[in-house]
């Protein structure tokens, strides 16, 4: 007779399988996305749900990933920043994708990446529903960071889509050295400006801001520090989207021993009822993220 323990172990096995299949699909697709970049640098005609005009490369990456991830047994829903609605592709878990994070870096040939989050819930999900997250970074090498089962791992992806672990149990270094805050400085609220000036006065901290969240977060995971796309005077929710960017990076950085925040609470505690909702994002070493919350609580 099947017991509750059997059901739990079946469930874990099936989540393990879907996670592995999603990673395989993302790693297999990454070299193709990269190869397709040089000829897809122009903007398309239609805006995405966030009111931005994507590049042909964003659309290409989204189509490839939708096809590959949508084919995986156990994936029920595919959603991406480029599509207004979530797509039903089968039955099972929900996968949210930012196909090409930081694609404005394509023209100047700088870093960009692909972000994936797996949720055990219909969309929009909450931070409690996240089961795993990963991102690929198209830099001098192609790497993939994954967070699953309390562990963060870094892989290198080869041109044939195979991938090998190069760092296991990745944790944020204890002594942070880098910081990067997005948005126009003139649009920052006073509390953020004051806090950044404080960070800048610390001789051990260096500015690192590349304009692709995933590249900037990877600096923080590697060297320790803080990345933020903060609340802005004319855009209190900032720019980044909770389902596609906030939850996955919050989950990855927290799993690596760091902290995440929307300015007042962990990103994983944020609840929004719109698939494309935005949130301020602050991730990094706990002491630095605590500093943001302390500054912003002054005006509560
Ligand atoms: O997804 C949006 C994004 O490209 C992020 O990767 C990045 O952090 C941000 O926009 C950059 O915005 P800005 O151009 O305003 O610095």
Structure commentary:
One of its GO terms (molecular function) is magnesium ion binding. Pfam families: FBPase (PF00316), FBPase_C (PF18913). Residues 46-164 form the Fructose-1-6-bisphosphatase class I N-terminal domain. This protein has six helices and 13 strands. By secondary structure, the chain is α+β, with helices and mostly antiparallel strands. The chain folds into two domains: 4-167, Fructose-1,6-Bisphosphatase, subunit A, domain 1 (Fructose-1,6-Bisphosphatase, Chain A, domain 1, 2-Layer Sandwich), CATH 3.30.540; 178-297, D-Maltodextrin-Binding Protein, domain 2 (3-Layer(aba) Sandwich). Strands 2-1-3-4-5-6-7-8 form an eight-stranded mixed sheet, sandwiched between helices. A five-stranded mixed sheet has the order 10-9-11-13-12, with helices on both faces. The longest helix is centred in the N-terminal third of the chain and has 33 residues, at 4-36. It is globular. The termini are far apart. The structure holds 6-O-phosphono-beta-D-fructofuranose (F6P).
């Amino acid at each position: 007779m099947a017991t509750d323990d059997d059901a739990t172990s079946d469930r874990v096995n099936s989540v393990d399988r879907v996670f592995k299949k999603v990673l395989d699909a993302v790693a297999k697709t990454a070299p193709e996305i990269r190869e397709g970049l040089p000829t897809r640098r122009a903007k398309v005609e239609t805006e995405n749900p966030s009111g931005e005009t994507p590049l042909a490369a964003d659309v290409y990456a989204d189509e490839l990933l939708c096809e590959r991830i949508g084919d995986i047994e156990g994936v029920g829903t595919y959603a991406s920043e480029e599509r207004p609605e979530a797509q039903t592709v089968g039955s099972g878990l929900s996968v949210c994708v930012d196909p090409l994070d930081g694609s404005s870096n394509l023209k100047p040939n700088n870093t960009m990446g692909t972000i994936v989050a797996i949720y055990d819930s219909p969309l929009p999900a909450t931070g409690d529903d996240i089961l795993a997250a990963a991102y690929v970074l198209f830099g001098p090498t192609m790497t993939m960071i994954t967070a699953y089962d309390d562990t963060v791992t870094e892989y290198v992806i080869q041109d044939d889509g195979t991938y090998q672990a190069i760092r296991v149990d990745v944790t944020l270094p204890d002594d942070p050295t880098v910081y990067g805050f997005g948005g126009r400085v003139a649009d920052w609220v006073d509390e953020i400006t004051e806090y950044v000036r404080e960070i800048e006065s610390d001789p051990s901290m260096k500015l690192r801001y590349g304009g692709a969240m995933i590249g900037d977060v990877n600096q923080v995971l590697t060297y320790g520090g803080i990345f933020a796309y903060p609340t802005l005077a004319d855009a209190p929710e900032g720019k980044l989207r909770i389902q596609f960017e906030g939850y996955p990076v919050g989950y990855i950085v927290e799993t690596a021993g760091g902290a995440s925040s929307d300015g007042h609470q962990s990103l994983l505690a944020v609840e929004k009822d719109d698939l494309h909702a935005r949130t301020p994002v602050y991730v990094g070493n706990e002491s630095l993220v605590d500093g943001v919350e302390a500054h912003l609580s002054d005006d509560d």
